[in-house]
Amino acid sequence: MFVPAYLDHNATTPLDAGVLEAMLPFLKERYGNPSSRHEYGRAARAAIDAARQQVAAAVGAHPTEVVFASGGSEANNLFIKGAAACLKPATIAVSAIEHPCVREPAFDLKRFGWDVHEIAVDAEGRVLETDFSAALAKKPAIVSVMLANNETGVLQDIAALAARAAKAWFHTDAVQALGKVAIDFRALNAAGVNALTVSAHKICGPKGAAALVLDKRIELKPLISGGGQERKLRSGTENVAAIVGFGAACELAVARLEADAARLNALRGQLEAGLAASGAAIFSRNAPRLPNTTFFALAGIDGETLVAQLDRAGFAVASGSACSSVSPEPSHTLLAMGVEAGMAKGALRVSLGRANTEEDVARFLEALGETVRKLKGLAAVAA
Ligand SMILES: Cc1ncc(COP(=O)(O)O)c(C=O)c1O
To answer: Which domains, from first to last, does the chain contain?
Structure first.
């Protein structure tokens, strides 16, 4: 069977074989409801408790601070909507490069009398100091700035930002950071971060499990109420197998973090040397970034067309953010960075993962070169 090379790990990752092993009993014989009082229920509850400890350990939090949810999107919505429902309408400040599952709930708050301040970023995609100060001048009640961007991979200095926004409820979306850079919720919390989002399927865990790591001094209104699971913050019978898989994936991610990051950084170096030699513009190259992510564009080439051609050639990559690739709009992250719309439409994201090799990168560079020559040839004929 023809297996395309997978270079789209920021969209999702393959399920690790050991993680699947850990999950299987909870899809088979250990199917109890964790709220049940009998042996089946107790086994499921114990498994969730163990996973809660694994997730907490991976982000330097206490297990009681971990609130399980179905995905990063739900956890981000829970924080923003849940916090706003407990506060008087005021200003919410979110960076201009947030994932839609932060942006949309934030803008939705306008209906309830909130003012939204979109914090501008510089040409490299880092939060602009002057605009962050302008946001703080409005005394925002809620601030959300992502730890790592899903498209460029750019990392923000969250502790420094949170320290300046001491009066706000401060949230950071760490979905792309988990497993790629170390996360220490205790230190972030001491600096003023109240909540952090992580998601299993980005770290070789299953889809359907994520967590909002939440400072216990913060009170949120739940999105889903009912049986009172997850400290009454997320009612509904827990997705036991997925939560167990999330725990196992966290343990693996922590154990492999340093080795994975070093290897991916070296592979990314190989990729970017090849791209730079072919004249590609690599976005955010001078900012601190995740070790696995490259976002680039080649002048005059359309990103969507390139993705389709590379797919045929056997390479799975993304144009802009995979989560929003149904929309033909240029990446809002690049537009916020001041990249011209035509250039932004040409953007392609390669996000490397554990299974990728030097050979994958070399073959990808070759296929990209051939595809670009073909597309330029077609354009010349059409002109
Ligand atoms: C930065 C970021 N936040 C949130 C999400 C949403 O997470 P999930 O797919 O678990 O809902 C994604 C998914 O791509 C993401 O990249």
So the answer is: 5-12+257-382 (3.90.1150.10), 17-251 (3.40.640.10)
Mind listing the pLDDT tens digit for each residue in 248-270? 999 999 999 999 999 999 999 99
Asked if the model's pLDDT at residue 88 lies above 80, the reply is: yes
- Kindly state if the Cβ of 210 falls inside 6 Å of ligand 1: yes
Closest Cα partner for 251 from 205, 285, 215?
205
CB atoms within 10 A of CB 233: 21
CA distance 154 to 288: 6
Question: On the CB side of 51, how many CA atoms lie within 13 Å of its CA?
Answer: 29
Q: Are 270 and 283 in contact (CB under 8 A)?
A: no
Of 175, 183, 321, the one to substitute when testing ligand 1's pocket (max ligand atoms within 8 A of C-beta) is 175
Q: Tell whether ligand 1 has an atom less than 6 A from the beta carbon of residue 146.
A: yes
| 329 pLDDT tier (thresholds 50, 70, 90) | confident
At 324 the three-state DSSP class reads: helix
Which atom of ligand 1 has the smallest separation from the CA of 75?
A: 11
Q: Hey, what amino acid is at 112?
A: F
Index of the ligand 1 atom closest to the CA of residue 73: 11
Quote the ligand 1 centre to 373 CA distance (angstroms).
Answer: 34
Helix (H) or strand (E) holding 359: helix 358-382
User: Does residue 86 carry a catalytic annotation?
Assistant: no
| Separation of CA 9 and ligand 1 centre (Å) | 12
pLDDT tens sequence across 145-175: 999 999 999 999 999 999 999 999 999 999 9
CB of 319 sitting under 6 A from ligand 1: no
Q: What is the mean pLDDT of the chain?
A: 96
Cα–Cα distance measured from residue 292 to residue 10, given in angstroms and rounded to the nearest whole number: 9
Ligand 1 near 150 CB (within 6 A): yes
Note the pTM of the prediction, 2 decimals.
Answer: 0.97
Q: How far is the CA of 42 from the centre of ligand 1 (A)?
A: 31
